[in-house]
Every structure is written in structure tokens, then in C-alpha cells.
């Protein structure tokens, strides 16, 4: 039994050397932190140097610590018709709002009085109240009054209207063609992109001669000829044609009242354009 135990615990010379090396490595690992602390003492923080570094950082990235507060938005007198997008942003208007305003003036829009600014989409009542006292709109010299008749004007004539550029002129002519002419100038509000602000700007420069509109013979018009009328949708045009096919010619507006899907408001709008022959 002793012989077997001795055989298990006996070490060869090679194994003994390996054990010694292993013990030496373990001792070195355990002693390393103490040796490092002995040879590398912690340096004391120099408070003056630290404070100087903080001050330099403040000077580089923002105003000095002892400088007076600067207001975020600087209010100044301005003309909304000429101020740049950057100028709007200095007044506290967002870049998106500034882009909307500049797009409006670029297309010929004009602010004639301070209150016109309230009609800009996205501009809050708070913004207007803050900016209103600083708005200055120079009074331009009176120009010879020009009144354009909408049903006879071509694109060149329409662009003589202050506030109407080539794009708006093209839209007005396209809508006039579909409509058959303007019975009254208020119908301009139905033109794509014509909001109340734009209409108020041009309404005194235009008129509509209802005698120039193109009439529609409701008893002979085809589906394709009636379809462009902007006041009627596909189903309503089809109903007008089908009712005529089933009941014969229309005698008056009262016959159209029998078509269920055409209400009084639509009849009022299309009435001036219809003739019964």
C-alpha cells in the first residue's frame, strides 16, 4: 500500500522543475500590483491647471461664463416682402415656415399690410403677435389701375396682374377652358393654388364678363363634351345623359332637379352655362 502511494506522489525531475517554475510565476503575478504601486505613485491634480483647461473649453465652444445673456431671437424692423429666409430665422421663424413664405413671394405673392402675414400657413398667432410691431411695408407709388377681363385675357394679359406669374396664368386658362368661362371673378378661388390671400391680392385687378361664357346645349351635348365641367363628376354626367335618353329633351332646370344625385348647389353652379334647345 505504501509502495503504491509513493508511486503516485513521486515526481520526476522534469515534473519537479515544472512545478517550481509554476510556483515562481504565481508569485510574480501576485506581487505585480504591489510592485506597480511602489514604482508609480499617483500624481496630485493641479486645480489651477484644471480650471484653466475648463475656461479654455468654454471660450472655444460657447460664450464666456461671465458674458451677459444673449437673446435667442433678435427682433428688428423688417419688410416681409424682401427679407431673406435667413432673416426670417433670425426673427425666430423656423426654416420650414421661412421656406413657405419665400415660396409665396417667389410666385408673385405680396404682403400689402401687416395683417396679411396671418394668412401664411403654419405661422402661429403667437408668432404674428410677436412680429407685428416690427413689420414695415413701404407704400409703393400708385400705379395706373389695370383691370383684366378674365374671359378674354390670354396668358400675356394675365401676367400683367400684380401677383400673377406664368404658372398661375396657365392654371387660370386651363380652368377657364374646362369651365367654359367665368360667370364671376369669385370663381378664381376654385383655381388650383388660389387661396384667400392670393384672391384678395388680385380681386381688384380683374373682372368677369358673363356674356362671354361658352354655353352648353344640355339636349345635344355628349358625355365626352360634358365631362370636363368641373362641377360635375363622372356619375353625375352619366346620370344627365341617361335621364335625357329615357325621358327626352330637358325643357328647363326643373327637369334636372329630378336627378337624385345632383343637388341644388350643383344646379346653381351649372345653371348659367346651360341652354335648352
UniProtKB/TrEMBL annotation:
It holds the Pfam family HHH_3. Keywords: Membrane, Transmembrane, Transmembrane helix. This is DNA uptake protein ComE-like DNA-binding protein. The lineage of its organism: Bacteria, Pseudomonadati, Bacteroidota, Sphingobacteriia, Sphingobacteriales. GO terms for cellular component: type II protein secretion system complex. InterPro entries: Endo/Exo/Phosphatase_dom_1, RuvA_2-like. The chain crosses the membrane at residues 20-39. SUPFAM superfamilies: RuvA domain 2-like. GO terms for biological process: protein secretion by the type II secretion system.
